[in-house]
Design goal:
The chain has helices at residues 5-15, 21-26, 64-72, 95-104, 114-123, 129-132, 205-209, 220-223, 226-236, and strands at residues 27-33, 36-41, 44-48, 82-84, 109-113, 135-138, 147-151, 154-160, 176-182, 186-190, 215-219, 241-244, 273-275. The chain is an alpha/beta fold. A hairpin with a 2-residue loop joins strand 2 (36-41) and strand 3.
Length: 277
């Protein structure tokens, strides 16, 4: 499912949210691969789940040219302020790549579940003090108080939402749903591999209602199931959702997709861009 960036650009604008060029320039969401996205608003840029090397034979890897551009700080992937990791599965998280990126860019911070940080510190290459100072492990559990961190122009909030497959599998995995507000202007949500059971969301009803969300990046199974759609409408309540973590066999062309995908906005081709409202 690889197509040229020129074709991607054309198809993106055909599917583009109805925004003025000025608004599109102010806020952008760039698809990297699987659940990996970059969100940019003005000079502030953040990455979600950008570094991984295992596609499990089913999902989109970040193309080598995009990964290299991120590491080299080439536009549009320059000036990254923070990286967020939802959980420590290998299709979201590579500890050695993360450490290498932190070493390359000393002004950048990492936020991840404490479980993933523990994995990083034991599995990755030796981590220097200057890197350790910028690694923030977020310890939480379902039903606990939400995490809230103010980091410069970023308001970082997170709650634990069980990994998909609960309660029969992946129950040992700490999965964070992030809510990040950029420059006091744009709030986005990245849900990692969130499960669709309402039990994970009801304890945070007040949390979800407390802030307007312009855009949510949600695992596609939430958009394809009645229970998932209920969770998005009842709790997350974003103005718009984009499905990520899509199987790589799903066609890029919306007209070629199964009818279940009718009307859905999903990321399938790395390099796609959407504007933010």
């Amino acid at each position: 499912m690889k197509i040229s960036l020129s074709v991607i650009s054309l198809s993106v604008f055909c599917l583009f949210l109805s925004l003025s060029p000025a608004k599109a320039e102010e806020g952008r969401a760039h698809y990297l691969g699987n659940a990996g996205v970059m969100v940019a608003r003005g000079e502030t840029k953040v990455l979600f789940d950008p570094f991984f090397r295992n596609d499990y034979g089913a999902f989109e890897l970040v193309p080598e040219e995009i990964e290299s551009a991120i590491f080299e700080g080439l536009a549009p992937y320059n000036g990254i302020d923070a990286v967020f990791v939802s959980h420590h599965h290998e299709d979201h998280f590579d500890p050695n790549l993360l450490v290498a990126y932190l070493e390359a860019w000393p002004d950048m911070a990492l936020y991840a579940p404490q479980q993933a940080v523990d994995t990083l510190l034991t599995a990755a290459q030796p981590v220097g003090e200057t890197v350790l100072d910028r690694i923030h492990g977020l310890a939480t559990e379902n039903g606990a108080e939400p995490v809230e961190v103010q980091a410069g122009e970023l308001l970082i909030e997170a709650v634990e939402v069980a990994h998909a497959g609960w309660p029969s599998r992946n129950t040992e995995i700490d999965n964070l749903a992030y809510r990040v507000t950029i420059d006091k202007t744009t709030t986005v949500v990245h849900m990692g591999d969130a499960d669709k059971a309402t039990e994970h969301y009801e304890p945070y009803r007040d949390y979800w209602e407390a802030r307007n969300v312009e855009l949510a990046f949600v695992p596609v199974w939430l958009l394809l199931t009645e229970q998932g759609l209920f969770v998005l409408d009842e709790y997350v309540n974003a103005e718009h959702e984009i499905g990520v973590h899509v199987y790589d066999r799903v066609p890029d062309n919306p007209e070629d997709r199964p009818s279940d995908f009718d009307g859905l906005d999903i990321f399938t081709a790395p390099g796609e861009v959407r504007g933010l409202q």
